[in-house]
Write a structure and sequence with these properties.
Its main location: membrane. The strands form 4 sheets. The chain has a 7-stranded antiparallel β-sheet with strand order 11-17-16-15-14-13-12. About 30% of the residues lie in helices and about 25% in strands. The protein has 10 helices and 17 strands. The longest helix has 23 residues, at about 375-395. It is an alpha+beta fold.
Length: about 400
């Protein structure tokens, strides 16, 4: 798959032993994208001329049209990046120093055998800092997500009890006038790009969401969501079963993305106004305390171009907007993305996400999951039968 990290285009794939590998998404021959090629016997093969790359070091070890007796040029090599699969994620080390796997953060729920896991990721034309700030802002949930897991009637005074930690900030939330039976929530930010939302329910059950706002390019990020919970066993099994049926997998994925769509309505608007000179926060109030601390840290820690190797901060504003959109949806998406996600989020239901999904499918050369087929019907009927059989078997126990 194609990816982008800190401005660098990457290609991720698995070798013959199913280990994740990461190379720069550039063939040294004519600078074609390796991500449109294919993997043969664990090696990445360029789509353009069939050059093959050793997955361990990025060196070319096969050129089909090389004359007999000629050796492969020593400069025929693309950069390789250390990567490892851990805690359901692929971790890539982009630095020049030696990669240290022990730096990957660990939390108890990662190793809890009773915890059910779920995860999704999506490329967004939104700066990573906006996603991080959005996840510190629980006051938006009754309004932006009205009808999902909150309602407008739940909007009430909110106070954050914020304190600094070794790696960032943590805040306990207090909703004034909320019933004692309401779940207790806390939000944690671990610098630079990790957000954790913890929910404790009255019965003692818990839920923890880990969010990673991975910077891709100026104005674009990959938003990764992972969830751990100690309840919902049957629900988890149903979701796991859906992963085996492409039509169901696509339907579940689109339903899962409804809430992020709603967030992106606000954030794409914020991004536009910030490009015109507006600050991230113009009139902060008490419940914005965590976001204010974060913005102060972000402003001190990073200059405009610190993330982006090769970007001097002088790119034209209109060009920067287009490049962020193209990183996710291609040149034809510019100006249309905001309208698509607004329609998708406001309409409700997975099928109303069609404009967004069709655009993604077109730019990624994949069939839209909304296209009808006999396989879709068969998968739905079969999955319903399997779910019924599983429920009957569990009931008898």
């Amino acid at each position: 798959m194609a990816a982008r990290l800190l401005g660098e285009p990457l290609v991720l794939f698995r070798d013959e032993e199913n280990r994740p590998r990461c190379l720069a998404d550039r063939c040294p021959h004519k600078n074609a994208k390796l991500s449109v090629g294919r993997v043969r016997q664990g090696k990445m093969e360029c789509f353009y001329h069939g050059w093959q790359f050793d997955s361990r070091n990025g060196k070319v070890d096969c050129i089909p049209f090389l004359l007999p007796g000629r050796s492969i040029p020593p400069q025929a090599q693309t950069k390789s990046y250390p990567c490892v699969e851990k805690y359901h994620l692929i971790w890539v080390w982009p630095g020049e120093s030696q990669a240290d796997e022990s730096l990957i953060p660990w939390y108890p729920e990662f190793s809890d055998e009773k915890a059910n896991f779920w995860g999704r990721s999506n490329e967004c034309p939104v700066d990573a800092s906006l996603w991080l700030e959005n996840l510190m802002d629980l006051a938006h949930t009754p309004f932006a997500h009205d009808g999902q897991f909150a309602s407008r009637e739940q909007g009430r005074p909110l106070k954050y009890h914020t304190k600094a930690t070794k790696g960032g900030l943590v805040a306990e939330t207090e909703f004034f006038g909320a019933p004692e039976s309401d779940p207790k929530q806390s939000t944690e930010w671990v610098a630079p790009i990790t957000s954790i939302v913890s929910v404790k329910f009255p019965g003692g059950t818990w839920l923890r969401l880990h969010f990673y706002s991975v910077p891709m390019a100026p104005g674009a990020c990959r938003f990764i969501m992972t969830l751990y919970r100690d309840w919902g066993y049957l629900l988890q099994k149903a979701m796991d079963a859906a992963e085996w049926f492409p039509p169901l997998r696509a339907m579940v994925a689109q339903m899962d993305m409804t809430v992020p769509f709603q967030d992106m309505i606000s954030m794409t608007g914020q991004a536009r106004n910030m490009k015109e000179g507006c600050p991230p926060l113009s009139v902060p109030i008490q419940c914005d305390e965590m976001a204010v601390h974060f913005r102060r840290w972000w402003g001190k820690a990073f200059t405009r171009d610190v993330w982006w190797k090769g970007w001097n901060g002088k790119m034209d504003m209109e060009d920067m907007t287009e490049s962020a959109l193209q990183a996710c949806f291609g040149a034809d998406a510019c100006g249309q993305y905001e309208r698509d996600i607004t329609f998708a989020a406001n309409s409700g239901g997975s099928r109303n996400c069609r404009p967004y999904v069709d655009r993604w499918a077109t730019t990624h050369y994949k069939r839209s999951p909304f296209e009808s087929s006999w396989w879709s019907t068969f998968a739905l009927v079969l999955s319903a039968g399997l779910a019924g059989a599983a429920f009957t078997a569990l009931s008898r126990r």
